[in-house]
TrEMBL record:
Membrane topology of this protein: Multi-pass membrane protein
Protein name: Cation diffusion facilitator family transporter
Domain Cation efflux protein transmembrane intervals: 14-209
UniProt entry tagged with the keyword Acetylation: no
TM region(s), chain numbering: 12-33, 39-60, 81-102, 114-134, 162-182, 188-205
Record-annotated Cation efflux protein cytoplasmic domain positions: 218-295
Cross-referenced SUPFAM superfamilies: Cation efflux protein cytoplasmic domain-like, Cation efflux protein transmembrane domain-like
Keyword Transport belongs to the record: yes
InterPro entries: Cation_efflux (IPR002524), Cation_efflux_CTD (IPR027470), Cation_efflux_CTD_sf (IPR036837), Cation_efflux_TM (IPR058533), Cation_efflux_TMD_sf (IPR027469), CDF_Transporter (IPR050291)
Keyword list, A-Z: Membrane, Transmembrane, Transmembrane helix, Transport
One Pfam assignment: ZT_dimer
Protein localization: Membrane
Assigned protein family: Belongs to the cation diffusion facilitator (CDF) transporter (TC 2.A.4) family.
Amino acid sequence: MSDKRFEKAEFAAWVGIAGNLLLALVKGIIGFMSNSKALLADAAHSASDVAGSIAVLIGLRVAGLPPDEDHPYGHGKAESIASIVVAVILLLVGIQIGISSIKTLWHGAEAPPKAYALVAIALSLIVKEAMFQYKYRLGKKLKSQALITNAWEHRSDVYSSIAALIGVLGAVLGEYAGWPLLYELDPLAGIFVALLVIRMGYNLVKEAAHATMDHVLHHEDASELIEFVQSIKGVISVDDLRAREHGHYVIVDTKISVNPRISVLEGHDIAKSVKQQLMKKFTHVSDVFVHVNPYDPGYPYKNNMDEEAGAYPSVIH
């Protein structure tokens, strides 16, 4: 990860920590004062986001370390590991929210929450959506799976705040209309938030686990790489090319055929050119391994034992 990329990602993580901490405090205090189970559940969700953002920050710091003897391919997968931590936190919080809301519903809601709980929910919706847009766009730009995962965590909090809004608003209206049954909408909203969080956490676990493994790009995804290598001077053909995801970046292994009559040094220079140009053209490619093969000595070449070998051209490009 470049220094500039790391600085931007780290700043985004700190924005998430500060924003979630502020929201958790505001929603927690107002939720307690207004006696809103849905808002307290929403506050717990924001508190889990704080832990998630810290996990992302740790992952980004580790990913920013240079390759070493034990990690010759770098530490890029640390971001995916951080994503798994965030997803597990979401699952745990979702289960806890569900249990708490079910208990409240079982014992019955004696009074609706205070109307000013709606102010905290409106603030949460605005701040969470702003953080989602910021982190998602930056994550796409930096190709950071951890940031994208953390952004979707903000989006899940937007949905949970909407559910809390419906529950609190319905319960408040129930008091004004004289319908105590509507008081139950507050804990029901808490249950809905729990299911939403659990579903989001499950999806993120699957995506993060997939990113942690060395996933080989499909042929259609690697075709652009193949075409570019084929166009590089000195490359007669691309015998094989495999591009695998390694955290937020891609590692390319390719076999190329070159003129069998050139020197080892010339073949090395061609391989070096392939690596340099690939990494320059495609910024998400972090390393390239090139194996050089002699081109088939058939047409337009002749076998070295053929007396007429000199009658055929030996250089292509």
